[in-house]
Amino acid sequence: MTAQGSQGTKSNRDALRHEMTAAGCSLAEIAVEMRVRFRMRPREAWRHAHGWTLQEIAERISACPGQTIAADASLVSKWEKWPGPSARRPSLSVLVATATVLGCTVEDLLDLDDYRALPQSDLRILRHHAPEAPSVESAPTAAPPTAVTPPDKDDILAAADESAAWAQWAETTNVGEIALEQILADVQTLAGDYLTGDAVELFGRARRLRDRVFRLLEGHQPPQHSAELYVSVGYLCGLLAWISSDLGNLRAADTQGRTAWLCAEMSGHSELHAWVASTRSKVAFWDGRLRDAINHARRGASYHPRGSVGALLACQEADAWSKLGVADETQAALRRAAAAREALVGVDDIGGIFACPPARHENYAAGAHLRIGAYRDALTEADRALDHLRAQPVHAYGTEAQVHITRAAAFAGTDQPDGVMEALTPVLAMPPQQRLEPITRRMQDLGQFMAGSRAATGSATVAARRALEEWCLDSAPRQLALSSGEGAA
Questions:
Q1: Got the DSSP string for 474-489?
Q2: Which of 15, 73, 175, 443 has a CA that sits 20 to 30 A from residue 227's CA?
Q3: What radius of gyration, in Å, describes the C-alpha atoms of the chain?
Q4: What does the buried/exposed string (b/e) look like for 104-143 if buried means 16 or more CB atoms within 10 Å of the residue's CB?
C-alpha cells in the first residue's frame, strides 16, 4: 500500500480518476483505489471518486430531496474524518443523503472503524434495512400461492404494542420549551451585542451557538420544535454572514447567506425570509453585484414582513440604485422606505443588527442622496440620524461612523473642505478593531471623491486625504488578514 504523501495531491487524485475512468472502471472501483492508495476514509474516497470539493458535496447534500440537512464544507470534512479526532459523527439521515448524492449505498460509506463506533441503535436500523443479497443457487421462480392466515389475538396485541412504542419515540425530543426559549434569547443577545462589540469575538460566539443548534437539529424533536430551531439557526447564519462581510470575506458571507435562506425555507418563517434577503442584499451590494442586491431586497419585501425590515429592504434597494446612478429609482425606493416605516406594525423578533431604527434608516437615505448628488438632502438626513443616535443609550458604532463620513462627503460636495476634517474627527478616533469593511470602503470612496473635487489641491483637502489613507491602513479586515498570514509579503 502506498503511504499518503505527495501522491495525495489534487493533481494525483485527478490523474488517477481520469485514468481509471478511461479504463472503464466504476465509481466504486475508483473509490476503493482512492482508499487504498491514499489511505482515505470511505466517505472521502467516494467524494474524490466523483472529483467533488467539500463545498460541492455540501451543497448537494443540503439540496438532497426528502432531507432537511444544512451542510457546509467544514461540517462535511468532520463527517468524513469520523471517528477520528476533531470529527463529528454523521447521523443516519446524513449518511442516507450522502449515499444518495454519491450514487452508492450507506454500507459503501462505512468501514470497520465506523461500525465499531456507531451506536447500537444505528447498527440495528442499518441491519434491519440492509438489502438482502439475491440467491445464486437457482433462478427466481414464482412463489406458490399461500393461504392468508387471519391474525390471532397475540398478533393484534403485538401490532398495538408496536404502534405504542413508535408513538412514544415520536413524542421524545432532545430539546424542550425552556431550551428553545434560551437559544432564541442568546440569538437576540448576540444580535444586540454586535452593534457595539468586537466583530471577531462575536463571530466566535455566534459560531459556537450555531454549531450547538446544528447538533440539536441532527437529533430528534417534534416538527414544531424543529421549525423553531431552524428560525434560530437561520438568524445565526445571517449574523455570521453579516460579520463575515464586515470582516472583508464576501465569499464566506455569501455561503452563510445561502444556508440562512435554506433555514428560512425549512421553517417557513416570513420574517426570517425577509431578514435573510436583507443580509444577502447587503453582501451583494458590497460585492458589486448591484442588480442582485436589488433583487434580494425586492424578494424580501415580497414576504410582507411586520417589523422594520420592510423599511430596511427599501433603503437597501435605494442604496443599490444610487450606486448605479439612477436617481428616479433611488427616490422611488426611498419613498417606499418612508411608507414602510409609516405602516410599521409590531416589533422586530430579534432586534440589534436585525432591526432598522430611525437612525439606520436616515443613514441609508443620506448615503443614497449623496451618491446621486443631492448633497444638501444628504447633510440634512445625516444630521437627523445623529440626533436619533444621541437620543439612544446604546447605538451601532458602524452606523454612527457612516453618518459622519456622509456628512464629510456632503461638505466636500458643497465646497466646504474645512468642514470635512471636523466631520471626520469621531471616525478618525475609532480603534482599528471597529474599522470594519463597509466603513473602510466608505472612507476610501470619500478620498477618491475629494481627489476629484474642485478643492482637490487645497491644503485642507490634501491633509484630509492623507489622514484617510493612514486610517485605512489599520482596519479590522487588514489586521485579520495579517494575523492569518494572508497579508504577508
A1: T-HHHHHHHHTTTT--
A2: 73
A3: 28
A4: bebebbbeeebeeebeeebeeebeeeeeeeeeeeeeeeee
C-alpha cell of 372?
446621486
CATH topology of domain 181-356: 1.25.40
Cell numbers at 114, concatenated: 465506523
pLDDT at 426: 93
Cα–Cα distance for residue pair 385/452, rounded to 1 Å: 27
Domain boundaries, the chain: 6-124, 181-356
Contact in structure between 402 and 363 (CB atoms under 8 Å) = yes
CB 127 within 8 A of CB 57: no
Q: If you search the block for the grid coordinates 489613507, which residue do you land on?
A: 469
Q: What are φ and ψ of residue 351, in 5° steps?
A: 85, -170
**Contacts by 196-200 with C-beta closer than 8 Å and gap 24+?**
196/394, 196/395, 196/396, 196/397, 198/433, 199/243, 199/246, 199/247, 199/433, 199/436, 199/476, 200/247, 200/433, 200/476, 200/480
Q: How far apart are the C-alpha atoms of 293 and 317, rounded to whole Å?
A: 7
DSSP string, 47-66: HHHHT--HHHHHHHHHT-TT
> With a threshold of 0.70, does the pTM exceed it?
no
pLDDT tens digits, residue range 126-158?
775 554 433 434 444 444 555 566 777 777 877
Packing angle between helix 270-286 and helix 223-246, nearest 10 degrees?
Answer: 20
The size of the chain, in residues, is 489
Residue position matching grid coordinates 406594525: 345
CA–CA–CA angle 227, 230, 236 (5° rounding): 150
Question: What's the CATH code, domain 6-124?
Answer: 1.10.260
